[in-house]
């Protein structure tokens, strides 16, 4: 995987207004100076793109989409792009029902979703295009604690309501110098189907199998805790709730939200940074078949500086059978997202660009969409 509490319905906005109409949902990154914006715009190929492009899905990538839309519509002013961050599950459903030109998902398509896509992808099917990477930050709000180290077993117990107070011995052991208060832990999880949840629970299952017994997936399965919708909803709860802890894409960790350093098999705990996430994503393997570029992530890296809690957001489109009226705009916008300029915006927005080997395959695949 917007750093503020805002109703998701208000986030479906058009064209150049996609950034300015978001109220407190300000973008995590921008294009920089006007001169750099002009330079980036000059490299955007609009081709025959025109009209409105409807898309929805992953809220984790919303801040990246905002930055891309701002640049793209400035160059291709005949196109309006409406991206609604409804969550990965809702985004895929909308796509397979023919409501959107593409979807964003923080986990790769499942076999039943691919099968469902064949109804809208004439003579083709939906494919995964990895476009945005980044760390899943674990944000916390504990008065007097500025730095916090947690490992996978401890996080698993916290989010499974097995550790319920901040001065628990397991947390003390990992943070011997911290002044941990006698304060109830308020663990928040996503209420909607979410690829961020899918990746977060995959990490817990892989790194703490004895303490996380759930199957995983886009829906939260553990008992207890509290919920909020979207990454912005979780970040808002952490910011305003004493004792809170939750998970969301790093670009939402702003306005004073502190994030956990994760203890791995490496000698030192690893901070949630774009660079450390890139180190982990670089070890991902393409496991999709044909034109599908689904990745297999390593949630238990032991290399120094490799942050284990990462996600990759995929853009979901038809390999064949895209709607004729939106295909030019879809290809043009996706091409810009995957371009050197587009990927170059990600770090400033709190995301990790795709490794060269992967993004090169994405560009080749986009050029062949029909």
UniProtKB/TrEMBL annotation:
Q: Which residues bind phosphate?
A: 58-60, 88, 106, 194-196
UniProt xrefs under InterPro entries: ABC_phos-bd_PstS, PBP_domain, Phosphate-bind_PstS
Q: Where is the composition biased (Low complexity)?
A: 222-236
- Any single Pfam family the record assigns to this protein: PBP_like_2
- GO molecular-function annotation terms? phosphate ion binding
- What are the recorded Gene Ontology BP terms? phosphate ion transmembrane transport; phosphate ion transport
One Gene Ontology cellular component term attached to this UniProt record is:
ATP-binding cassette (ABC) transporter complex
Q: Establish whether keyword Signal is in the entry.
A: yes
Q: Which UniProt keywords apply?
A: Phosphate transport, Signal, Transport
PBP domain: residues covered: 49-340
Entry-linked SUPFAM superfamilies: Periplasmic binding protein-like II
- Region annotation Disordered: where it falls in the sequence: 217-236
Q: Which residues form the signal peptide?
A: 1-18
- Does the keyword section mention Ribosomal protein? no
- Which PANTHER family does this chain map to? PHOSPHATE-BINDING PROTEIN PSTS
Protein family: Belongs to the PstS family.
- The protein here is known as Phosphate-binding protein
Instruction: Report which gene this protein is encoded by.
Output: pstS
């Amino acid at each position: 995987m917007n750093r503020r509490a805002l109703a998701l319905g208000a986030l479906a906005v058009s064209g150049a207004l996609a950034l300015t109409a978001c109220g407190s949902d300000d973008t995590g990154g921008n294009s920089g100076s006007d001169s750099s914006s002009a330079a980036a715009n000059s490299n955007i190929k609009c081709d025959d793109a025109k009209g409105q492009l409807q898309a929805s899905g992953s809220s984790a990538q919303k801040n990246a989409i905002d930055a891309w839309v701002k640049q793209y519509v400035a160059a291709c002013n005949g196109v309006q792009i409406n991206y609604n961050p409804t969550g990965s599950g809702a985004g895929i459903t909308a796509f397979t029902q023919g409501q959107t030109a593409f979807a964003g998902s923080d986990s790769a398509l499942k076999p039943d979703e691919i099968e469902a896509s064949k109804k809208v992808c004439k003579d083709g099917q939906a494919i995964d295009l990895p476009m945005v990477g980044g760390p899943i930050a674990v944000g916390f709000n504990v008065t007097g604690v500025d730095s916090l180290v947690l490992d996978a077993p401890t996080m698993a117990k916290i989010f499974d309501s097995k550790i319920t107070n901040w001065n628990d011995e397991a947390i003390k052991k990992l943070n011997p110098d911290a002044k941990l208060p006698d304060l109830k832990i308020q663990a928040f999880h996503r209420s909607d189907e979410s690829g961020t949840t899918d990746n977060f629970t995959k990490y817990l299952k892989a790194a703490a199998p004895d303490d996380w017994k759930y199957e995983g997936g886009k829906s939260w399965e553990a008992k207890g805790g509290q919920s909020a919708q979207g990454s912005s909803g979780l970040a808002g709860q952490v910011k305003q709730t004493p004792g809170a802890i939750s998970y969301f894409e790093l670009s939402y960790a702003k306005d004073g939200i502190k994030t956990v350093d994760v203890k791995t098999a490496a000698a030192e705990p690893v901070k949630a940074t774009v660079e450390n996430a890139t180190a982990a994503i670089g070890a991902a393997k393409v496991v999709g078949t044909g034109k599908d570029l689904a990745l297999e992530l390593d949630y238990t890296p032991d290399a120094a500086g490799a942050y284990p809690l990462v996600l990759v957001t995929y853009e979901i489109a038809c390999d064949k059978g895209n709607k004729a009226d939106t295909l030019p705009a879809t290809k043009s916008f996706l091409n810009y997202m995957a371009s050197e300029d587009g990927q170059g915006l990600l770090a400033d927005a709190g995301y990790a660009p795709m490794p060269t080997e992967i993004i090169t395959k994405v560009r080749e695949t986009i050029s062949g969409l029909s």
